[in-house]
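Is this the right way to post structure tokens for a design question? Let me know if I should format differently. Anyway, here goes:
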């Protein structure tokens, strides 16, 4: 992993000077191949050894379904699609084993883009939350429209990131 990718996040002196001590970054925008998340987590650990750096929180890829968000509509290579509950257990467990600080799931119907896309079921989202919580890890849900909020809350997520619209059309 190239340290330059995380370095701008770690050396944010203006934030540190005001007492800001943690930084989160949606790693899905890095478009990193799935096989290389462990080096990202390792780079985070290396940067964290310097007390001058902000605390970096790494989630890794968005856990989603095949052809779900962010693959549709963005073609993202940093989605972690799960196909069954057993696949969910293996893949989310693998992210946690590799060092993810939190698990970020995608709950998107596609309304914001005027199209229907598959999304995590309540059962799968709840299983992700159970797996993460059993290991003391927070689960964050990425949603874009208010109607997806109910599924996230019913599944038991700890945080919501990205809700920006009440749009419900399609």
């Amino acid at each position: 992993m190239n340290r330059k990718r995380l370095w701008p996040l770690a050396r944010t002196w203006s934030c540190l000077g005001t007492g800001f001590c943690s930084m989160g970054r949606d790693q899905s925008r890095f478009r990193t191949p799935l096989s290389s998340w462990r080096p990202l987590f390792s780079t985070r650990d290396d940067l964290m050894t310097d007390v001058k750096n902000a605390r970096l929180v790494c989630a890794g890829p968005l856990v989603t379904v095949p052809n779900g968000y962010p693959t549709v509509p963005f073609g993202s290579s940093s989605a972690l699609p799960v196909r069954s509950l057993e696949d969910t257990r293996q893949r989310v467990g693998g992210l946690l084993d590799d060092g993810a600080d939190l698990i970020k799931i995608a709950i998107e119907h596609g309304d914001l883009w005027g199209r229907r896309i598959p999304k995590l079921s309540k059962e799968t989202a709840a299983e992700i939350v159970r797996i993460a919580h059993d290991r003391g890890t927070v689960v964050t849900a990425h949603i874009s429209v208010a109607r997806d909020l109910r599924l996230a809350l019913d599944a038991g997520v700890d945080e919501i990131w990205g809700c920006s619209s009440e749009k419900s059309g399609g």
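Format looks fine. Someone answered above. Worth noting: The longest strand covers residues 102-106. The two ends are 39 Å apart (CA to CA).
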